[in-house]
Write a structure and sequence with these properties.
- The protein is an alpha/beta fold.
- It is built from 12 helices and 8 strands.
- α5 (104-116) crosses α6 and α6 (132-141) packs parallel to α8 (169-185).
- It is elongated, with a radius of gyration of 25 Å.
- The N and C termini lie far apart (101 Å).
Length: 295
Amino acid sequence: MQTHRKVHNAMDKVTIHTLRQMKTRGEPISMLTAYDYPTALLIDQAKLEMALVGDTLGMVVHGFETTLPVTMDMMVLHCQAVRRGLKRALLVADLPFMSYQISPEQAKANAARLLAEGGADAVKLEGGQTVAATVRGLTETGIAVMGHVGLTPQSVSAMGGFKVQGKTLEAAQHVLDDARALEAAGVFAIVLEGIPAPLADIITRAVSVPTIGIGAGAGCDGQVLVMHDLLGLYDRFVPSFVKQYADLGAAMRGAFEAYRDDVRARTFPAAEHEFSLSDEVLQALRAHLDAPETE
């Protein structure tokens, strides 16, 4: 008897149920950050499963040193732009620093903004056991939540910098416990960032929800990268776990320099870039300009 294994149709709208089915079938999940309309269009055309409006926009788009200055208004604005271009992929938006830590009510109000105003399908927040109650409150309200454990950039000050987490037995157990707490609280997926690959593999096998790795090895159910890192558009700091698929920074710089040279040489704009006037209009205009002014 011949059997057919159902696979995810690349044209279907991606939902949280799609992602769980992909984990069950062993189909890798692809996710990339997006902060604007044209990037969203390309993500859908490339048939990635998820787009993340990450608070990394504070660094790669707005030029901050960390993600901490990012505000809810900034997140909503970028979500709206991505939503306009995204039809197929699941849109996840970060809850920025101090937008969910003060109280469960604050978390619900800000998560609701990202969904209602920004058009996000789900929200992501950082932390494990310490935010489990907040996560449960959100999921019980009907808000889809993605967790994030390991290296959590919003806690970079407490961590002493961007350092790999979970390297000792105690630290590894803590990350595992964080992931399990999030699973119990109802997250639909968990980002594992900056942890040893064997630990990420253990967590992926231990939880029923998809794990999305970034600097966590190939054993995760999926992967996410910051789009600017992938394309070579952000050179202030490039993590060692990033694979650069293009060097658009160099290509753009070369194009800018060529444009500058053409402008200085007056070779741009050329005739094909200009609009013309009819001879009749041109002669009348010149005659008007040449006519003597009268008192």
